[in-house]
Each structure stands twice: as C-alpha cells, then as structure tokens.
Amino acid sequence: MKRKGLRITKVVMNAEEMEKTINRMVHEIIERVGAKKNVAIVGIRTRGVPLAERIIRKIAEIEKINISSGTIDIALYRDDFFKSLASPEVGPSNLNFDVDNAHIVLVDDVAYTGRTVRAAIDALMDYGRPASIMYAALIDRGHRELPIQPDFVGKSVQTTENEAVAVYLAETDGEDKVVIGEK
How far is CA 10 from CA 24, 62, 71, 148, 179, in A? Predict the structure, then answer.
C-alpha cells in the first residue's frame, strides 16, 4: 500500500509487539504443519517476503530444520491488473522446491479483501498442484470480498473502508511497526 500521503492515526504494533506476534505465529505454524513432510513457506511480494524469511529463520532455530522457501509475485495475476495499475512493478517469483504435493504456507503482511492471496494461489497453481495451501497474515483488517480467511493471524484490527493499514519492516522501511491511517 502507498505510504506517501498516509496520515497516521494509530500505531497498532511497535517493534517489540511485532516480534512477539511473529513468534506466536511461528509456534502456531509449527504446531499445525510440524508433522507434515514437504512443507514450504512462500512470501507474497512485497512485504510478505521479509515476513516469510523471519518465519523461516525462527522455525529453523526452534526445530533445527531447513524448510523450503520461495517468493511469489502476483502482479500479473491481479484481477485489477488492466483497470487500476498504470505500470505495475513485476518482480521475479522464485520457488526453490517442487510445488507438486507440497504443503505451502503463503505469507503476507495484511489480509484485506482476499484478492491478493487469491492471485497468489493462482500463481502457485501455475507451478504445480500443492497438497495444501495455508495462509498467514500479520494483520487481518477484515472487509473480505472473497471467501478467503487466513489460517494464521498475527492480529485482527477494526478498520473502516477509508482507513489504510501500513506495515513497516526493518528490511524494507528501516523500522518495525504497524499503523492505521487515513488514505
């Protein structure tokens, strides 16, 4: 989401709260997929990628295992590609594992209408047929337009349609925080 022109009205999470939230999500993911073989964590570009990398590192620390990983770019899979994206930034998708029969956890920063993760699922299916796909979102702000819900949620926040949720990450923005602001 665009950060320029966003008038911040509330800080939802600071760096310490974000760290605790991600740690809790990691333990939930381990509990849910720990017994499965062929598990992969895939970050949805842009801010889902560093979140996925954090989750992967924490799982490796706790479980002492290497987990398959990847990134998926959804720009060309968006249903608003030709409507509202004047010049979309298309980045590479990089899946370092065989998607067929893999148990995949898609990671994104904010769950909103459901359209982003739908596009990510479409993109994944072009690479193969996973055994299962789960969805992890740091923030769930509601307002679904599609019947898609995250399996793992860091924090649910109440927002209006006129508000925006912005996730700032040290890797991309120089600091960790989540804010609500007016568009």
Answer: 23, 33, 30, 26, 6
